[in-house]
Amino acid sequence: MEISLKEQIARITEWAEEKKAENVRSYVVEGKSDYTDAILVCEGSGELHNRAIADNILGHARENGIYIMGKEGYTQGTWILIDMGNVIVHIFDESTRAYYDIEKLWDASLKLRQQTQQNSETDLNGGEE
Known about the structure:
Layout: H1 5-18, E1 22-28, E2 38-44, H2 47-63, E3 70-72, E4 79-83, E5 87-93, H3 94-100, H4 102-124
Helix pairs in contact: 1-2
């Protein structure tokens, strides 16, 4: 049974939070990204905690028939990436998350797209909103 993207994000968020993942954020980038439809970002308190979060997500994904295309960074544990095809999960420790700040890229991109869309709508309405 195929589940919706929204439901898959909700499940993955739940699985991360079962292991006390913090600051969980998700971005639906469907139609805005060539490589995935959603990105989920969270953090753990350290390498061992990050691996526990990853293990829980991986275990539940397998139980639910969600194919895991790949995982990276598991051994080091400071930044673990899980690729489920239409959802990419990033599990960081706090300092690595702050350093790379990948959410800033998506926040800026989504704001720019919203602004561009609003400008296009204004142009179509002859300058009136």
